[in-house]
Request: fold
Amino acid sequence: MNKLILCLLMVLFITGCASSGHQAAADAHAVAPPNAKQLSAGEINSTVIGREHSSVTATGYSFTETLNPDGTAEIKISSEALQKGSWVMTEDIICVSYQKYGKECNKVLSDGASIWFVDSTTNKTNNKFSVK
Reply:
């Protein structure tokens, strides 16, 4: 009987951990709220560039990314090695490239508390970030 209770508790614990990770990933890729506005290039520079921002990958791993003023980028996903890349902005679209992860071009939206990188072609949310 004690083994059965222990097994049930373990299953509940594992299920809870899995579902919370899944929820964080879902939240990080959800559509921006209606009050989020698209940022201009100047607003992207003052809100995103030179500041560390953090999110969760689609598979639930936390990461931080910094887009440096010199056009370089750095991303650190969970326990993986730091990856270096680059970014460029054309009008109000920012494109970030990493050899390991490829290139993404995004509109940047903000509601004043969070920012969303939204694919400039598909309009799907690539990530919701908090900025430090």
The chain has one domain: 2-131. The mean pLDDT is 84.
